[in-house]
């Protein structure tokens, strides 16, 4: 007999953007902003983030939300960013001519962006505790 507990897997949708012309280091800064947030809130954060990498990350997030809604019939209001990560893609190598016949290498880095969204059940609204209502302070007349 094993003591394994059955963990219910939440439905999730994945979207990827590959060969994005942005350095992985800069894209990771943006991806850290949206991890663990609700999908709508994450889109709003990306909309106002000043980094240029926020545009491709927002597109991948919107694509993951559309995949969840259209392919898995999930409610868009229950979606949360469960995982988001950036892998390094191939580097384009270019040369910049320098003085006295030298050439410096320029590395144009690319990224693979992956965003996973999962549908979490909506939390039940909290009910007010039964009992007396707090009374207003009485002023002396």
How would you characterize the overall build of this protein?
It is built from 3 helices and 5 strands; from the N terminus they run E-H-H-H-E-E-E-E. It is α+β, with helices and mostly antiparallel strands and 141 residues long. The strands form 2 sheets. Strands 1-5-2 form a 3-stranded antiparallel β-sheet. A hairpin with a 5-residue loop joins strand 3 and strand 4. Helix 2 packs antiparallel against helix 3. The model has no long low-confidence stretch (mean pLDDT 86). InterPro entries: Ribosomal_uL22, Ribosomal_uL22_bac/chlpt-type, Ribosomal_uL22_bac/org-type, Ribosomal_uL22_CS, Ribosomal_uL22_sf. Belongs to the universal ribosomal protein uL22 family. It comes from Actinophytocola gossypii.
């Amino acid at each position: 007999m094993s003591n394994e507990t059955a963990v219910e897997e939440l439905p999730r949708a994945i979207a990827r953007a590959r060969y994005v012309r942005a350095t992985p280091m800069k894209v990771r800064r943006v991806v850290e902003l949206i991890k663990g947030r609700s999908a709508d809130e994450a889109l709003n954060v990306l909309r106002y983030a000043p980094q240029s990498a926020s545009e491709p990350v927002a597109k991948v997030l919107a694509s993951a939300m559309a995949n969840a809604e259209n392919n898995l019939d999930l409610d868009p209001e229950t979606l949360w960013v469960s995982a988001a990560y950036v892998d390094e893609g191939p580097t384009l190598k270019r040369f910049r001519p320098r003085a006295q016949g030298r050439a410096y290498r320029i590395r144009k880095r690319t990224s693979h962006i992956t965003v996973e969204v999962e549908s979490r059940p909506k939390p039940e609204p909290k009910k007010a505790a039964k009992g007396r209502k707090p009374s207003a302070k009485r002023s002396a007349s």
